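Practice problem. Given the sequence and the SMILES for zinc ion, write out the predicted structure.
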Amino acid sequence: MNRQLGVCYYPEHWPEEIWAEDARRMADTGIAWARIGEFAWSRMEPEPGRLDWGWLDRAIDTLHAAGVGVVLGTPTATPPRWMLDRHPDMLAVDAQGRPRGFGSRRHYCFSHAGYVQECRRIVTLMAERYGRHPGLVAWQTDNEYGCHDTTLSYSAAARAAFRDWLAQRYQSIDKLNRDWGNVFWSMDYASFEQIGLPNLTVTEPNPAHVMAFRRFSSDQVVRFNRAQTEVLRRHSDAPLVHNYMGRITEFDHWAVGADLDIASWDSYPLGFLSDRLEATPEHKAAYLRQGDPDMQAFHHDLYRGVGRGRWWVMEQQPGPVNWAPWNPAPLPGMARLWAWEAFAHGAEAVSYFRWRQAPMAQEQMHAGLLRPDSAPAPALAEAAQVAREIADMPEVDPARAPVALVFDYASAWAWEIQPQGADFDYFRLALAVYRGLRKAGLSVDIIAPGTADLSPWKLVFAPGLMTLPGALRQAIAAGQTTVVAGPRTNSKTEEFAIPVPLPPALPGLDVVVDRVESLPPGAQVPLAQGGAFAHWFEHLDGSAAVVQATADGRPAMVASGKLFYLAGWPDAAALGQMVRALCEGAGIATEDLPEGLRLRDTAGHRFAFNYAAHPVTWQGREIAPAGVAWWPR
Amino acid sequence: MNRQLGVCYYPEHWPEEIWAEDARRMADTGIAWARIGEFAWSRMEPEPGRLDWGWLDRAIDTLHAAGVGVVLGTPTATPPRWMLDRHPDMLAVDAQGRPRGFGSRRHYCFSHAGYVQECRRIVTLMAERYGRHPGLVAWQTDNEYGCHDTTLSYSAAARAAFRDWLAQRYQSIDKLNRDWGNVFWSMDYASFEQIGLPNLTVTEPNPAHVMAFRRFSSDQVVRFNRAQTEVLRRHSDAPLVHNYMGRITEFDHWAVGADLDIASWDSYPLGFLSDRLEATPEHKAAYLRQGDPDMQAFHHDLYRGVGRGRWWVMEQQPGPVNWAPWNPAPLPGMARLWAWEAFAHGAEAVSYFRWRQAPMAQEQMHAGLLRPDSAPAPALAEAAQVAREIADMPEVDPARAPVALVFDYASAWAWEIQPQGADFDYFRLALAVYRGLRKAGLSVDIIAPGTADLSPWKLVFAPGLMTLPGALRQAIAAGQTTVVAGPRTNSKTEEFAIPVPLPPALPGLDVVVDRVESLPPGAQVPLAQGGAFAHWFEHLDGSAAVVQATADGRPAMVASGKLFYLAGWPDAAALGQMVRALCEGAGIATEDLPEGLRLRDTAGHRFAFNYAAHPVTWQGREIAPAGVAWWPR
Amino acid sequence: MNRQLGVCYYPEHWPEEIWAEDARRMADTGIAWARIGEFAWSRMEPEPGRLDWGWLDRAIDTLHAAGVGVVLGTPTATPPRWMLDRHPDMLAVDAQGRPRGFGSRRHYCFSHAGYVQECRRIVTLMAERYGRHPGLVAWQTDNEYGCHDTTLSYSAAARAAFRDWLAQRYQSIDKLNRDWGNVFWSMDYASFEQIGLPNLTVTEPNPAHVMAFRRFSSDQVVRFNRAQTEVLRRHSDAPLVHNYMGRITEFDHWAVGADLDIASWDSYPLGFLSDRLEATPEHKAAYLRQGDPDMQAFHHDLYRGVGRGRWWVMEQQPGPVNWAPWNPAPLPGMARLWAWEAFAHGAEAVSYFRWRQAPMAQEQMHAGLLRPDSAPAPALAEAAQVAREIADMPEVDPARAPVALVFDYASAWAWEIQPQGADFDYFRLALAVYRGLRKAGLSVDIIAPGTADLSPWKLVFAPGLMTLPGALRQAIAAGQTTVVAGPRTNSKTEEFAIPVPLPPALPGLDVVVDRVESLPPGAQVPLAQGGAFAHWFEHLDGSAAVVQATADGRPAMVASGKLFYLAGWPDAAALGQMVRALCEGAGIATEDLPEGLRLRDTAGHRFAFNYAAHPVTWQGREIAPAGVAWWPR
Ligand SMILES: [Zn+2]
Ligand SMILES: [Zn+2]
Ligand SMILES: [Zn+2]
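Answer key:
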């Protein structure tokens, strides 16, 4: 495996006089390539049809001359102002009915055919011009699909496209009425033309209606991206990448990823801890300058899956960012730790965002490797250290993990549509299970719901999976792998109805969910073997063997052979004892890691990462705060 | 008194093949009638003017054949999709100016004349067809008026109707300007046509303007309902019912109820505890699976009043619901306790919602008496037990309670418009007083503000009554009953002005509210006799005798003869000692009940209900959690 | 210095029969003048063009005859309803795109040329009629500019005016693109006509765009006010005043004040404590009925500066108000204390709001000096006491304070646009520093950012000043005064970019902010000399002397000569020790005041004010709660 450092660079932001010096300093730092171009449409095409490639030609050549390649971004996340004169109706519309206007970025609706055509046009021009450039490392399509809540649009364009999508999916309006249960509140439609988008209803809309809209909206992202990949493949052999943003679940990354060669994501550990993680204040305080110890690894493992083994960090936080509610500075060493953690999880490249802090516009408070005055920012030395270290390391392949976690975007939509308990969130549940596995020292693979063969893993978790796909059902039925389903697994049909026979309806497991309870904060169901259920508890009926019970004797986990069903949302203590017990049964060794320490095994090495703000001693090794250690397995 | 069980049933949701079996099982359970039809307009009239009564004929006949009657709902809460093509402007508009669209229910504006006419048409057709059917037990008009905040609409139809209403009420624009005090901020109008709805103003609109809009909006509900009752009475002798929803105060239930024969309400104790009750986290945790011990009884007593003695529970929660922030399961026994509590308060019928859990659409996570697979859900056995028990009980009449509480919807509007302290809420105040009475073991009648004769009660509370109606003033002046007014009682004219002479201006009581204070959470005014005022404190002037004082010697309650005025919002401890003292003075025996226990006296029996999650012993009797006990008085 | 009492009076609210008695009672109370007229447009001009001055003539004459002068308000804050028929597009539009309608007050957009012309017309008529009236004391323009968030408007009128303003400021669109850094996300414009208002963008708009809009919006207030002052000066020699509202920072009061003769503000200590002060619950509880001990003084000192020495309290809270979340009553004595505190800070007049509590409309729960029934409210006696006391006091001039604080409206906009930490607020920072100075017993002057001469003060604080103006830079460079800059001081250019060389770039101080951290609640950076930084911490580089360090040895305050730079937001303990040390260095004596006590020095006296709810003893004097004491210096 090839390990590289990259950096995000915006030549259009800086005087051309300093480009060569920038390139030289990049090379000196050990940076292999720069991502450029992804927000520069207004400089590529200042007026409709008037193209200006000169500056970009020179920028690419300057970098290339210094030995720095380019990852070239298509600029479609930032249509220029003139685009709106050509397509006044291209804007997305929010759920309150307000157009989301020009003046920042991502101001377009995925369903607007005219804008998709404009994207094809500019991408064609770029691909023709740069598709064979020797400095070209890869293409990035657009930027952070779905960021700023942009997947869903309630525009007229989206409504028209949704009706077409529905007509294709259901073929007859009677089928749609039946599948959605529209009889329920006299919601029957006489034609597809009567169907609106599911916003601004008096009370909640039919969840089947919303689910269809969510599937449609995800499909529109896939279509939008594919319009670009089709063009790029025609003119270039460079690999295609998109940079996903952390904890964006509004579209199916597995589906977008299928059209790309490499998955990448934008890793902002401190920003994410501040703005998108459920955690106690104590947890957030303990990891204030390090980030959550499992959030990055989760995404690394997810995108390794999405990229079918090939993945990058396209944007790596180097210092304080500008966009979280609070923006502290990383502990010294974290810019190195984060990079090494990515490599340990199999990343081929880690690219810092950004080369030099921009003194202007929206992100002027976002740190770079250089300060705005071109002096080194603290992360520059850490990046250089990583570059030296990876030069010394042998290339390795990631090891297959003993444990896998199924991650499914449709389930995220389902439980957002119908949480049933206000704090039930699919990503949160998946991350909680993942965290439980990591605390036991395990490496984890994250796999798609359509996975048909579970034999590579000894133990597979599939919590909260809305619908069990046929292939996965057969893999479970094969019975070769220990599988832990539940809670809520297989509790809905694809049309968002409760299946009859009742859930979980798992092969060979005689158990039925008789009723479910969501629990407010503070309410718990203690378990006999330790820990408790919080958030969620299911009352089970059936003859399956009870392997864990509540303190008052009700089933908490049942099993048949290698198939387990979990009747609630386990807290950390419950997960701890369950993971130990299940791993023991599956023949997997576990560790009891100190707070803040995490492990990751590659084919040849075991890596340890200390996310704590204090030194941690483990198996005789003391690891400093923000410290990384590795040794042969 | 006749006691019956009912159930809510939706034949249109199920294959016709299972209707007969459903009916048989209902009868076997002891269910006397099913409420049907209230959301089925799209199946009664699939296209405008094309009526399909066949399925409904057969459903009613099938139930009737099994000995199960029907309460037939008019389907006007769910106009079909085609209705919007006929009346595109029929939608309500929210306070932000957004139409509240199709896709759920209650998508209509009460003021839209065209839609009212459509309702008259469909109700006429139903009444003509089923008005004399032998299985018909009663009619339900529409469903849960005001649910989902639907009483107020800011539509063009509402604005036009409001102007007419104002013209009728004030006759001249000068009178309106004077009555509202429009001189205040140059808000004078030159004609009724200049008056808008009181939304989207820069800062708060004139409270007199809002109060008029609130009175108008309530009147529109009365008018809407009356359009249906006029039709139904022409074609049917069955009693007319509406099912009110818990803690809906946006329209005057006394006024709607005057056009009906029976009041009913929809009782969801766990949902209400979760989503519409102010309480400490400890209180909510203690009653998580039982519901608040006073919320149901309050509504029972309220609707006994609204129904002039005749009232039902139309929808009784049988298990977890789907719509509250969190949805736990009831303790075993609660589905029985809730039913018995309703009967003890005088209900003629309790109807569980719903027969079978629907696997589709919005309420698929709402439990029924049956699971979606037709297996019994836990409440089925409890319902059957209640059926057996009521068969064994003698019929009884409810007893007149010794204490009454005045409940007035206009006051709820008034203090919502002008809380003066952010947490001052009329319903909350009324429930607090009610709870204080219940904790002393008292049965309570809830009475209308227009009540002209207080002699049936020994003690009457009238807290927070915006305006004292003339009849009630005379009843107080009569001096035969101990009356406790205040805080805020009679502090506004009907036109939302401070009356001069100043409040409370009660007959024979020389006291004036010199100034008022609202108090943030944590701020209190301790009382000399125990407890404290919270939320609200009034400085009193005058010669009336001080019967309770603050710890620093200011009047807390003054009296003259049997008339008392309370100068603040008493906390639980203050209410406890005040209720004991006042009852002693009025010759009413009180009890000191353990936490969670509540009593209710009928003509012949005393009932005890244990809302606690643990056994409670009282007067030598141990009552299990969720337990009900009764014995002859 | 002349000290007077005034009162706000609305003759149009009351029967003409009682005006003379009102005037007599005012005079008896010792009230020198009444402010009238500012909301009475609908009575001055009931129909467009039909003027009715009779009542106002008689009201002014009646007051004058009793020896009570008038401050005459222009009625432009409440355009009558007919104005909207003439100018339907005159309404402001909120950031969500909704017109802010008729029905309360301040329903106009500052940028609407037609409405400005109407204002000129009515003000001309008033000025011609009353400009030489012997009873005229002063003119008030409009009322509380900016109250109810009315400075910013997103109307079509505002957009058109903004484009003109931009064209004037930048002259070329290329310059605007460069100055704003529009290259950043392809935000380049081809013409001024393409620029929209910075609302409803997908994610945050360019801060330079928002900053320009904020400067423009402030300028529009200045222009609007100037349209009136130009008219008034033409017809009257009476001084011109505006009544600013507390903690309104959306427009530049220094700029509006430059066109006026006297600054005044509306002081509602209890309302402000409840609705617009960050403080712990304990602090808010301790000062519930007194108000924050520094909030009033801060505004007194600010408006003394804005008024170039001449300032009033135009509206003084006399009892509970109606508009805060909670509205308690002042402690007995506070209506006197607040007035005396204003006089001690140099006020020429304190005017109570209002004479008699209005029983109708929006403010009916707002106390006055009289109750609605004309009986005295508690504050009347306190006002009369103040009148007697000021008659006995010698006239004095305010003393120059030893310490000054720079206050800059543009900085308030800057950190609102880009807080970087969610709780970073400029006013809060300024008030925190001010509080630290006051706790040390100091009198403070508040000065404009353009101040060119710092020699009058021994010590000047300039925290959080977005951009250091040239004059102030030169004054600092002069080095005669101890100046404390930071945090964030001079960290942006006027076009909202990070300057290079990097901040703070202060004359003679070799230090650079290497990176900044915002800190969530609870996170702190402890300091070696005591206290800690919260909210904000800057990493400093450079050779400047470290005079305060963090507990782990990083620079917390650096200095060169008399210039200090503070690297964070000090908590109360840190401010305490820093103020003591800096004052010692600057030769200023400090005190260690007990909780709740505050001092203020005039030329001849030292005043002490006890804001605590209990007696306070200091230097042998016991001061009662709400007590005021003074003695010669
Ligand atoms: Zn990014
Ligand atoms: Zn219901
Ligand atoms: Zn005011």
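Check your answer against the key. Residues 207-235 of chain A form the longest helix (29 residues).
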